[in-house]
Design a protein that fits this description.
This protein is an alpha+beta fold. It is built from 5 helices and 6 strands, in the order E-H-H-H-E-H-E-E-E-H-E. The protein is globular.
């Protein structure tokens, strides 16, 4: 059974948020790390980005609608592709957090703050990364 912690009043008629958080993980690590650890890395970077940007209005709106949160997970081929996506996000002035696994000091992935589709639409098209 789903919790409705985000909607205190069951008669609430708010519509789902149009914000989504994008998570990009390195696909080349899957074979050596395994599925479970990669899912964990995605959770780490998602929470880290939300905490880093928690005071932004986009994040506050996203968190107010817990039952409607959207995430999109992308697979970058390797670290170079991850850095390419980070550069595109920088160019678009979209905040994100890179997760570096310690003590190995390996860049595993990144997650954006909650964004509108229009803010990142061009970043994901034609860049060689795929939805996971």
């Amino acid at each position: 059974m789903s919790s409705s912690a985000g909607n205190a009043d069951s008669s609430d008629t708010t519509t789902p948020t149009s914000y989504a958080q994008h998570i990009v993980l390195r696909g080349d690590l899957l074979d050596t790390w395994g599925t479970g650890p990669m899912i964990t890395q995605g959770a780490h970077v998602s929470v880290a980005a939300i905490e880093t940007y928690r005071n932004l209005p986009q994040t506050q709106t996203y968190l107010q609608e817990l039952d409607s949160m959207r995430k999109v997970t992308w697979k970058a081929k390797n670290e170079a592709w991850l850095e390419k996506i980070a550069a595109r996000l920088d160019d678009a002035k979209v905040e994100y957090k890179i997760w570096i696994e310690q003590p190995e000091n390996i860049k595993v992935g990144l997650a954006t703050r909650p964004v509108l589709r229009e803010e990142t639409e061009t970043i994901w098209k034609g860049n060689g990364i795929k939805m996971w």
